[in-house]
Amino acid sequence: MRLKVSEASWNAFASHLLERTDVESAGIVLARALDAADGPLLVADELLVVPDEGFLIRRFDQIRIDPIVMSGMTQRARDEGLSIFTVHTHPMANEAWFSWADDNGDKRLMPSLHAQAPGPHGSIVIVPGGGVLARAFDEDGGMTMVDFDVVGRRLVRHLQERDVVTDERFARQELALGPAGQARLRGLRVGVVGLGGVGSIVAAQLAHLGIGERVDIDGDDVSVSNLSRVFGARRSDVGRRKVQVAARYATDAELPVRVVSVDEPLGAQHGALMRSCDVVFSCVDTHTPRALLNSLAYEALVPVIDMGTAFRVDDTSGIITSCGGRVVVVGPGRPCLGCWGHLNADRLREEALSTAERVELGRQGYLVGVDVAQPSVVAFNTYVAGSAVIEFLRLVTGFAGADDPPNRLGFRFDDGSVVRNEVNARASCRCSR
Predict the structure, then answer these.
(1) Which of 397, 387, 414 has the alpha carbon at shortest distance from 313?
(2) Tens digit of pLDDT per residue, the chain (433 long)?
(3) Is 312 helix (H, G, I), strand (E, B) or coil?
(4) 422 pairs with which residues across the strands?
């Protein structure tokens, strides 16, 4: 089970609770349950601090909240069927742990919470320095430790203890990222949507990094024109699914990544699978899957790294008139693809048309350039894909400049320049809330 919370909300909430070092403080997290392929996913919807007057007992090693205050804070959970997680501090501890008093308090409280809302419900302990420990209880009193993710400019995972496995294949990489960084990569499930010129390179790099699991989604076959730019593709692969080629690449290289292959275009039916990913790379050419992934980033707090390359060639001279690429990271605390201008309502409408409707509108001159093959060069694809994977490393391991990561990188291939772009999220947009 996993509980996710946005970085901005959690940092403000935890800082408030940890202001008092002489006594314990408490709060409530209300979370909504989402369907995910790897088990229950809870996303924090509201974080509430118990006011000073809301305690019947408040000492450095014990608290008791006024039941009337508790009832008022959890009313929304009862109305909307949300999960309730109590949060309290251990102000004098160095590591988060549940005390005997915590165990007994939860034994009394959790049955009451389950009588009011379906749950699961649970409790969280936080300590100075950022330590977090979370657990959940079912209706029968069974307890499960919960992985706790704080998602924003960084993806900080408070995991339950895992066995640390050393793999000599990544020894040189571990010198750069450290044992903790390599362990984080090994524990991740990463999605790659679109296994063409850019996506196949991203998939290969993720396998070489040593991530634990990769989810590949693409409904296209390898064509002859793909052979110059799809990593691992052979002449004999023409007609084979791109996801099969990507999976074979990792197998042939004897890399430990587990690959889940979906050989169809991304659609709403893949929501649970996408919500089970820690990060998703958007390597698509069309706006419909990009819009789905943009929604995923804020609904399920799954960071999405969107990328692309573009060329404009003069039809008469054959000379490249403009060329460039982008890497955009979207998710909690960052502007969305709509705010960046990378989602177009007209293109979404056009992509929703049937083939017959497109042909007819094209004949009438209303659709121009839809479904037309775009220029693609492996060297430029590799440049953008590598930059996107570096932003992934910055996000999940804290490698190099994680305190001020870029939201968008813009590339100009003609002069070799790279620019960090900024834009303000629209006040009316969901991503700004």
Answers:
(1) 414
(2) 999 999 999 999 999 999 999 999 999 999 999 999 988 899 999 999 999 999 999 999 899 999 999 999 999 999 999 999 999 999 999 999 999 999 999 999 999 999 999 889 999 999 998 899 999 999 988 999 999 999 999 999 887 555 556 788 999 998 999 888 999 999 999 999 999 999 999 999 999 999 999 999 999 999 999 899 899 999 999 999 999 999 999 999 999 999 999 999 999 999 999 999 999 999 998 889 999 999 999 999 999 999 988 877 666 766 666 678 999 999 999 999 999 999 877 666 665 655 664 454 455 554 344 454 566 788 889 999 999 999 999 999 988 888 889 999 999 888 889 999 999 999 889 887 7
(3) strand
(4) none
Cβ-based neighbours of 9, under 8 Å, separated by 6 or more: 44, 47
Closest C-alpha to 71, from 79, 59, 61: 79
CA–CA distance, 117 with 120 (Å, rounded to integer): 9
Contact, 29 vs 93, CB < 8 A?
A: no
Would you call the peptide bond into 120 cis, given omega within 30 degrees of 0 as the criterion? yes
Q: Quote the radius of gyration of the chain (alpha carbons, Å).
A: 24
Q: Tell me the two tokens of residue 381.
A: 């694809």
> Would you call 344 helix, strand, or coil by DSSP?
coil
Q: Which residue has the tokens 């634990």?
A: 212
Residue position matching structure tokens 């430990």: 256
Tokens in use for 377? Answer: 């060069």
* Strand duo 2-6 + 26-34: pairing: unpaired
> How many alpha carbons lie under 13 Å from residue 288 in its C-beta half-sphere?
10
3-state secondary structure of 123: strand
Return all residues near 418 (Cβ < 8 A) that are at least 6 apart: 387, 409, 410, 411, 412
Domains, the chain, in order of start with CATH, read: 2-158 (3.40.140.10), 173-342+374-432 (3.40.50.720)
Closest to 431 measured CA to CA, from 294, 291, 275: 294
**What is the SS3 assignment for 262?**
strand
